């Protein structure tokens, strides 16, 4: 589950940007367009928040005309040949590294899948969080403790 108490504290401390929840029809469209099943936690995120974040931006669906999760996933499927079962939910660039944060829907279990980091420089894959709930709470905790 999302740690809403921590999220509220982080938002009070840092502010936040959420586009707002989206309809089930838009969530089904994203799943169909990417040809993957979405994990339950990510569906809840889309229904509640749409996209945005407190510490960094989590790709999702903004409205019926725009989905950053769709656009980024398709872009990296074409440009970097990433696995067709991954959904890109973050793109991190620093002076020393560049990686994608993805939902690995190929490893779906009990309606959840792991969140992975894919290093764009050396093509290494690292398990990052057990599921999207953990990833969301991790990002919230980082924002609160800055």
Give me some keywords for this one.
single chain, 146 residues, alpha+beta, SMI1/KNR4-like, two-stranded antiparallel sheet, 6 strands, 20% strand
Secondary-structure blueprint:
Blueprint: H1 4-14, E1 17-18, H2 24-34, H3 40-48, E2 52-53, H4 68-80, E3 86-93, E4 98-104, E5 115-119, E6 125-129, H5 132-144
Antiparallel strand pairs: 1-2, 3-4, 4-5, 5-6
Count the strands?
6
- CATH architectural label: 3-Layer(aba) Sandwich
Q: Assembly state here?
A: single chain
The CATH superfamily is identified as SMI1/KNR4-like
Q: What's the overall average pLDDT, rounded?
A: 95
Please give the share of residues in helix.
Answer: 25-40%
The poorly predicted ranges are none
What is the H-and-E element order? HEHHEHEEEEH
C-alpha geometry: globular
What's the CATH topology label?
Answer: SMI1/KNR4-like
Please write the CATH class name.
Answer: Alpha Beta
Give the amount of beta strand, in percent.
Answer: 15-25%
How many helices? The count is 5
Label the structural class. Answer: alpha+beta
**Main pleated sheet:** 4 strands, antiparallel
Strand order of the largest sheet: 3-4-5-6
Number of domains: 1
Radius of gyration, CA atoms, in whole angstroms: 14 Å
Ends apart, CA distance between termini: 23 Å
């Amino acid at each position: 589950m999302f740690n809403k108490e921590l999220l509220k504290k982080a938002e009070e401390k840092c502010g936040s940007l959420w586009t707002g929840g989206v309809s089930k029809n838009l969530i089904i469209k994203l799943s169909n367009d990417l040809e993957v099943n979405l994990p339950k936690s990510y569906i809840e995120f889309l229904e509640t928040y749409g996209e945005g974040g407190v510490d960094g931006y989590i790709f999702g669906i903004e409205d019926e005309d725009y989905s950053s999760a769709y656009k980024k996933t398709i872009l990296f499927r074409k440009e970097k040949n990433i696995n067709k079962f991954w959904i890109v939910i973050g793109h991190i660039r620093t002076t020393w590294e560049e990686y994608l944060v993805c939902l690995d829907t190929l490893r779906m279990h009990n309606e959840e899948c792991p969140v992975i980091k894919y290093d764009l420089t050396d093509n290494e894959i690292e398990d990052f969080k057990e599921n999207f709930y953990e990833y969301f709470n991790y990002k919230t905790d980082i924002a609160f403790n800055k």
